[in-house]
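Batch job 17 of 40 flagged for manual review because the log was empty.
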Amino acid sequence: MLKIEDLCVNLHPNWKKVRKMKQIKILFMLVMTILLMGSCLSDSDSSVTLYNDAAITDFTLGTLNKYVGDKKSTFSGSTYLFNIDQSNTGSHTFKDTTIIGRCVYNNDSLPLGTDLKHVVGTLTTMNNSLAVIESLERPGYFDYFNALDSIDFTKPRKVRVYSSDGSVYNQYYISVDAHQEDGDAFVWKLMDDAWQPTPDTQQLPAGIKQLLGNSTTERYAVSTDNKLMVSRDNGASWQEDLINEDYDMLPTRDLALISYPMTNTDSVDYVLLIGNREVNEQNDEAIAMVWRKVVDYSKNSTKAKWNYMERNSTTGDSLALPRMKDLAMVKYDDGILVFGGEGIGGWDEPPYTMIYQSRDNGISWKYNPCYNFPEDFNNLATKVTAVVDKDNFLWLYCEGIGQVWRGRLNRLGWKNQSQK
């Protein structure tokens, strides 16, 4: 049978010399718990089962405070999932500290500005195991883990869980992580290496003046007489593509095209084309031409047609894409970004000063303050080529000046983590 002295030594090696009231309270609670259990066991009319296992089975946060500047708000931490690694030999790194042993940690970091010094959380244990947490002020001393008390989680905390029969305990480290940077901040870096787009050495087919890009099953181009062309055999043959409107609104210069799968559909691509009409023919025009095509390449599907997203080409509207030289377009995060040189025709804008975003597949365009050109960007560039790599970095290669910029929205660099 486990002696009371043995249990107290497990809680603190120098339990006989402890004078701090919290420590005495814990020892008293443990002793009383065992005495009461023993009394119940001696009663022939009652039966209490004591267990020799101890584990944390769940950790849930309560209401937390968040500070952004001088503004305070609260949010529920219960939606943030915590992993529990029950392996005593597991390895985890928290805040540049590597810990070997059982760990409890959140998958998705809490928001920027979360007050980690005052965290309220509830521990669920196996078979009524008793949880105690090591004191920050006096390492080696453990206090009762009270779900009603706020706890300082600015660093990982050591927690011990004692079995109900007092025979064993298991030790855990609990880490509560919060973001240290603004997820919607876009950070640019001027790169030293002279990256540049791979030159297109492909010879243009007869009658084609510019290749535009590809969808899953089609390739697109503009003919020498400014018709939209399509190839469905990897460029071996070309034919005029189908359109719903007349050719008057088709762009003929500053062309950019992207294609991406439609959300929640199978075998369907969304293809977007932007560009401008000739300045000498449409001198007062203030907006770019935006066309789209929804390509269903499932079996027995009909051939899709291009559609013009109609606007008032002279006066435009507040949600139209402005008319700029040398347009570049990429799919990024939950929208589409467009970069352009100086405004032309009826649109007056210095080159490379605004980045426009669409979140509705090119229907409307707005300036998003999350996205700006780098502070030291040289707008004397003759053209900008934009690409996105597998790590969600956006690269800008600036022709004429040789600058190469790399940037990323902070949250797109965070690990893909889930919530409850």
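Reviewer: the log was empty due to a logging misconfiguration, but the result itself is present. Confidence is low (pLDDT under 50) at residues 1-7, 16-22, 416-420. Unflagging and moving on to job 18.
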